[in-house]
Design a protein that fits this description.
This protein is of the alpha+beta class. The chain is built from four helices and two strands; from the N terminus they run ααααββ. It has two domains: about 100 residues, Phosphoglycerate mutase-like (Rossmann fold, 3-Layer(aba) Sandwich); about 35 residues, no CATH class. The two termini are about 25 Å apart.
Length: about 160
């Protein structure tokens, strides 16, 4: 499944071509809407919205440019991922193609982290991925910002 925005949809189409599987697009997987910040460079944001930017960097809940809070992004994206994951066959794999901020907030929500800790997951580079798995006590982050195929990790809940 994938965001319906152009770059994510194009990436998902490439994966679909390799696997032969269909892609379901969902607007709930779109990147965070940043309101008046949309389309601005980092320098322009700092110049026009310096105090708001500083508050956001400190980890305060900020509607960047009047847009969405990170918790609102997780509120819309995480349920979609959970719904699709629940429909998997045993040992199935779900691939979600989305955007860095949406992926980070969704991972944070799935792991049960407080919103203030989501930034600790770090960014996600283009065309890299994260791997989550379900353990005995819930979701586990197995890899983050990966660029090679994962190796199985034996854990205490196997």
């Amino acid at each position: 499944m994938a965001s319906d925005l152009k770059r994510a949809a194009a990436t998902a189409a490439e994966l679909a071509a390799v696997t032969g599987l269909a892609v379901a697009h969902d607007a709930a997987l779109r990147e965070t809407y940043a309101g008046e910040w949309q389309g601005l460079t980092h320098e322009e944001i700092v110049a026009k919205y310096g105090e708001q930017y500083a508050a956001w960097k400190r980890g305060e809940p900020v509607r960047r440019g009047g847009g969405e809070l990170e918790t609102e992004v997780a509120d819309r994206a995480a349920p979609v991922v959970l719904r699709h994951a629940a429909g998997l066959r045993e040992n199935g794999t779900l691939v979600v193609v989305s955007h860095g901020g949406t992926i980070r907030t969704t991972i944070g929500r799935l792991l049960g982290l407080e919103a203030a800790a989501w930034e600790s997951l770090g960014g996600l580079s283009n065309c890299c991925w994260s791997v989550l798995g379900e353990g005995a006590r819930g979701w586990r982050l197995l890899e983050h910002n990966a660029g090679t195929l994962p190796e199985p990790v034996l854990g205490d809940d196997d």
